[in-house]
User: Which sequence fits this backbone?
């Protein structure tokens, strides 16, 4: 399942997409995120899933544009920490 | 007291020909939404009884009231129900539910039950948010996108407009379609700003119908951009309270160039979440038995 967290407003699209089929619940992205945007949860959208899944925390869902900003330099952008840490390649940012 | 134009009909229903005593598995789905609370009771995976009412300020109490009302006159008590799944905004706050599942999963599952397995895209237009959901032929979610940043484009926004324009909420959709020429949509995305904008238009001499049309088309456009992001595949259905507002639905269909499947006469699309939850409850009972 592609879980899109975030919003769209006058200034653009700000979504973090988690591919829950790829996410193995290892939690490496959670540990590496300096703003603590990500968290491990039991997947309430898939009652038959046994392992935890990563999600954008409730607290950050409506402000990820700002929460994620420090990791998004405008020049010389390197891979974002969360994307770098995710071995199964389950995380995508829309902006 | 002034007339409450926003007030919509609360009701309950029970199957006239089914008897729960014959059923092996009785489950319930309780959907405590931001504006309305719904309970669906299913006997062996078939809809047996339901209720639909307003959510009060106390969510455990609302959950209790809605399930009591659904059980009203059936002879059922909570002890007869094998498994209760909670969903919706208030899902974590339902004392008698065994498990909480998001409304995203429940709406997809419920839509699959109501309209059949051809459903690929579900748009849930609720009281306080709006969700675009894609699912497979079993009703399992494959992708979702949610907008809960503000109340524009939702049922709550419609209620505010019903009051502002003194139009009963059930009549708003058709009234907005009574114009020959479509006005420009209101530009505000926030419901509070949209209300001030609408008030300005009324004072300038716009008719109720015209303001309503402008608001409905703004709402339709907002939802359209959400759907566009996730990609719409046939068959497309709309659940939640706004699915009953023809003014929004028609305009959305025009923008999408796609018609939503009409609602089957025996089901209320506002109940999709509760039905989905009750179906999950049944699957969970079966899983426990294994």
Assistant:
């Amino acid at each position: 399942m592609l879980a899109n967290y975030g919003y769209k407003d006058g200034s653009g699209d700000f979504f973090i997409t988690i591919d829950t089929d790829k996410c193995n619940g290892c939690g490496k992205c959670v540990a590496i995120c300096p703003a603590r945007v990500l968290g491990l949860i039991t997947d309430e959208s898939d009652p038959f899933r046994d392992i935890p899944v990563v999600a954008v925390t409730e607290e950050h869902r409506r402000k990820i544009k700002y929460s994620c900003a420090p990791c998004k330099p405008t020049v010389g952008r390197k891979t974002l920490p969360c994307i770098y840490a995710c071995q199964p390649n389950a995380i995508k940012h829309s902006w | 007291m002034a007339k409450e134009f926003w007030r919509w009909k609360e009701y309950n229903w029970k199957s006239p020909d089914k008897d729960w005593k014959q059923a092996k598995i009785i489950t319930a789905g309780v959907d405590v939404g931001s504006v309305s609370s719904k309970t669906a009771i299913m006997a062996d995976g078939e809809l047996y009884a339901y209720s639909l009412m307003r959510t009060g300020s106390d969510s455990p109490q609302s959950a209790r009231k809605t399930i009591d009302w659904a059980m009203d006159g059936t002879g059922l008590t909570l002890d007869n129900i094998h498994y209760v799944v909670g969903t919706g905004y208030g899902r974590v706050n339902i004392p008698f539910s065994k498990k909480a599942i998001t409304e995203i999963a429940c709406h997809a599952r419920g839509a699959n039950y109501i309209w059949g397995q051809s459903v690929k895209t579900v748009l849930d237009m609720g009281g306080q948010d709006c969700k675009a959901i894609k699912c497979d032929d079993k009703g399992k979610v494959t992708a979702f996108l949610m907008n809960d940043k503000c109340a524009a484009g939702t049922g709550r926004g419609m209620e505010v407009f019903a009051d502002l324009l003194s139009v009963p909420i059930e009549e708003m959709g058709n009234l907005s379609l009574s114009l020959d020429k479509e006005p420009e949509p209101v530009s505000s995305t926030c419901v509070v700003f949209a209300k001030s904008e609408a008030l300005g238009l009324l004072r300038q001499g716009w008719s109720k119908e015209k303001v309503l049309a402008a608001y409905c088309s703004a709402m339709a456009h907002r939802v359209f951009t959400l759907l566009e992001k996730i990609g719409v595949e046939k068959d497309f259905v709309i659940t939640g309270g706004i699915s009953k507002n023809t003014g929004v639905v028609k305009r959305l269909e025009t923008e999408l160039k796609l018609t939503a499947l009409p609602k089957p006469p025996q089901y209320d699309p506002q109940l999709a979440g509760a039905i989905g939850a009750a179906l999950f409850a049944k699957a969970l009972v079966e899983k426990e038995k294994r």
